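This part of the workshop introduces the protein records we will be handling. To make this concrete, we reproduce a full record directly below.
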Amino acid sequence: MFAQCSPRCASSVLLLVLLCCILPPPALGSKSSEDIRCKCICPPYRNISGHIYNKNVSQKDCNCLHVVEPMPVPGNDVEAYCLLCECKYEERSTTTIKVIIIIYLSVVGALLLYMAFLVLVDPLIRKPDAYTQPLHNEEENEDARSLAAAPTPSGARANTVLERVEGAQQRWKRQVQEQRKTVFDRHKMLS
């Protein structure tokens, strides 16, 4: 099956299989105990320090009487203590969090593998050619010789487009060299 599939198709199939393994089937849609909770934040009360209480209860039971255990105050102060507490029902999807983390780690891992490839393997693949370095040096020597050579006589007419382009290029190089001399040697700007 994968022999005829492109790399993009194979990665899509792999991602689909990964998601099927992580995500629960839709029939098991009930929330797990770590996906829901009731959080009560109770401030300091008389000689009792403030405290945060968490408990896995349903949304209708999310109040101080069901969440705060053990009750830190005696029976007649329970109502006053519970009025100070702020209880919130919280729901989250741990499956979504897991999928996002897996995608994030996959991207970071792929980037690290690519970096390792560039650092370790790429220099071995791209060995410097024995022919390109002498050619590059020869081009630099040609450029230096052409700049040192006297300009071509203006009376000679350029016959081809290539000769005209080469002539314009030589004039441009002479102008650049003159500007460099003026700016760097004489510290003046041309107008």
